Amino acid sequence: MSGRLTVIGLGPGDERYLTREAEDALQAADALYGYRPYLDRVPAREGQIRHASDNREEAARAEAALRHAAFGGHAAIVSGGDPGVFAMAASVCEAIANGPEAWRSLEVTVVPGITAMLAVAARAGAPLGHDFCALSLSDNLKPWELIERRLDAAANAGFVIALYNPVSRARPWQLGKALALLAHRLDGSTPVIFGRAIGRSDENLTITTLAGAGEVTADMASLIIVGSRETRLIARPGLSPLVYTPRAIESVSA
Amino acid sequence: MSGRLTVIGLGPGDERYLTREAEDALQAADALYGYRPYLDRVPAREGQIRHASDNREEAARAEAALRHAAFGGHAAIVSGGDPGVFAMAASVCEAIANGPEAWRSLEVTVVPGITAMLAVAARAGAPLGHDFCALSLSDNLKPWELIERRLDAAANAGFVIALYNPVSRARPWQLGKALALLAHRLDGSTPVIFGRAIGRSDENLTITTLAGAGEVTADMASLIIVGSRETRLIARPGLSPLVYTPRAIESVSA
Fold first, then answer.
1. CB contacts, 8 Å: A83 with chain B
2. Distance between CA atoms of B147 and B138, rounded to whole angstroms?
3. Is B249 in Cβ contact with A141 (below 8 Å)?
4. Percent of chain B having pLDDT more than 70?
5. Labelling A153: which of A119, A133, B17, B199 has CA 20 to 30 A away?
């Protein structure tokens, strides 16, 4: 079977974050599939078909692209950030696992991209400079109880925590509850970073503390980084502070 | 003070992984600082000075670049992968925190890059498709006891685990001990991915299980991903299997 499917990470914002590999992969495909705002970021190429779909239609999008590849085409699915982090690469694997046997013969390539936590961390300094975890706050696909257990384990063990999918219209209370849980484990002075639409013209970075985090507004375009006991802040005259997690840790209690 | 310092992520391998932002930032600097193999990846530009240094000289490199910026220059430090993940951005912040007051007035910019775990994950499918953590196995800068505690917490809470700095000449036994610890928490059939020099011409990807992981050779250029209880594998005729962690988790015991 000659069909191909490429899953391409566009990075968090405009084309500054595209890698050369991603640019080449976008050119090579004969059909692009994706959530409309991501597709809109990709310049048009003559002869290339586009299939825009909605945010919640990951499974249907993956299947449509796989069907195109199974007919011998070269399909590409575009994904914001990195397709491997809470994004389309897992949806494609799930579709192949549950789909017709023939889909297992297709050539599948994942092209990595800058995921949101790396872009937000870069804006703030180096908050992910030591051990960290990435956790989705969405309880659409897992029980809330499990999210709480993971937050608890991560904070106790001293991981910096990057929160993906912190808020949506259907999930208004989860972020507040997560921050309250973390406030029981970590000092109120722990640095917390809210990055919104980083890499876009309307980007916004807010550096606060765990005690003050409840007052910051977040939405679907936000990524939040909660520091560990080690994370610290450098105040700078006339400049935004730098937040970083040192490379060295002296004691086991950290 | 007009000096500037940019910390630039080159991604994991050749120039395919460079973002446009990184290319522009490399051009803009008048002096480049970095570990020699990373500097060697960057094409020469007339009038741009280069200061190559050794692997273990992060602090001295950061200070040298900051001094250049403090004299009004535009210094750039190059970093493999992403500078914010176990790399130079934290060293720069540490140097500023401990350095002369004037360094706090310098403009510091971090340019994110594709970090090793994203490149390895992309080659394997979508092993980081759900909650995961990144942990350095180096006990040069933290007690081994703390590494064990974090491995334990991450495996118990169901995080996929990306292991950075798994082995070096001075640290020959740490990876074996870490895998043995994880084997007490996770099933022997748990997928484990060894990526070595991903993105370079000599790249190598080995997909194995936790029970078989002890037989795979790793070195300083390796990045290892250990699956969670949810991570699974799709066998494919004539192709490398796909490893992925599904987006949905049904039960809390996962």
1. 122, 126
2. 8
3. yes
4. 98
5. A119
Question: DSSP E strands: which ranges in chain A?
Answer: 4-9, 31-35, 49-53, 74-79, 107-111, 125-126, 132-136, 160-164, 191-196, 204-209, 222-226, 232-236, 239-244
Amino acid at B153: A
Residue A95 φ then ψ, to 5°:
-65, -40
Within a 13 Å sphere around the CA of B146, how many CA atoms are in the beta-carbon half? Answer: 23
B214 CA: distance to closest CA in chain A (Å): 23
The torsion angles phi and psi of A193, rounded to 5 degrees, stand at -115, 125
- ipTM summary value: 0.97
Bridge partners, residue B4, by sequence: B74, B107
* Cβ-nearest to B118 among A17, A94, A115: A115
> A30 by DSSP, 3-state: which?
coil
Q: How far apart are CA B158 and CA A153, in angstroms?
A: 10
Q: Would the CB atoms of A105 and B153 count as touching at under 8 Å?
A: no
CB–CB of A84 and B128 under 8 A? yes
In the numeric block, which tokens belong to residue B237?
């005729």
Q: Which residues contact A67 (CB under 8 A, 6 or more apart)?
A: none
Task: Please give the DSSP secondary-structure letter assigned to residue B81.
Answer: B
- What's at A91, amino acid-wise? S
Short-list A93, A58, A158, CA closest to B135:
A158
A41 Rama sector, left if φ>0, alpha if ψ -120 to 50, beta otherwise: alpha
A42 pLDDT tier (thresholds 50, 70, 90): very high
* Cβ pair B245, B227 in contact under 8 A: yes
Q: What is the pTM of this model?
A: 0.97
Looking at the DSSP bridge assignments, the partners of residue B5 are B75, B108
